[in-house]
Amino acid sequence: MAGNYLEFRFKIEPLQPASEILVAELGYLGFESFVEEEDGLIAYIPTEEYENDLLAGLHILQSDEVNITCSKQEIEQVNWNEKWEKNFSPIIVDDTCYVRAPFHPAGNTEFEIVIEPKMSFGTGHHATTHMMIQFILNNEFIDKNVLDMGCGTGVLAILTSLKGAHYVDAIDIDNWCYQNSLENVARNNCDNISVEEGGAELLEGRVYNRILANINRNILLRDLPAYIQSLEPEGELYLSGFYAEDISIIKKACEKQGLKFNKALERHQWAALKFYK
Fold first, then answer.
1. What is the tally of structural domains in the chain?
2. Is the pTM of this model over 0.70?
3. 246, 215 Cβ separation under 8 angstroms
């Protein structure tokens, strides 16, 4: 991407889980890349996309349990790939799924996913992705038709493919995520995944046994009718991308449209929910 960026340096005490929460909130505001440091976080956003009051709505900055200071400066275009290679570390979820970058050594878990994250959201490090991976690991996907809505890096779609899904549609409205998912799907040799750029309008006339949507709360609530319309009877809907305090709002909206609540996961103040149709 061309053009200059603003670099924000956040000093965070204590570091976790505040750093993880801050990454997610900044991602929703349009920040495109993050670099973890021992005492905080560096975040980047295109200069033309930044408004002076953009950070005012960050929940984590209002917390009494964490101290965060921030400084910013304008810089020239960043070599994002180099920064990822220096700072992206592999993760293991439930001793079963190993998510790594191409430059990391191979593991020996049941499932291994190779992700080049670049600027896309979804490496498994964030609590919401981590919980969605847990849901996939602990549920049945063999011969199922799956939708990964807001696919980011494509990590969830890839895992469902590895777990035996019949076919998977991976959709994201962001072009960078679309391109990144295409690369990662090919990298993991998942021939049964179709990656598309767009939103819920693409779902008309489609039917799935399993739908995964790891997106922010407002988009989930807005697009929920489209998800339910595309979900087969007895199908399963997995949602994340919102805080634990929003569980009641999400549950009420889903149950109002006939879904049955099954299970909730919580991690570092974030939540993931499973419903049946």
1. 2
2. yes
3. no
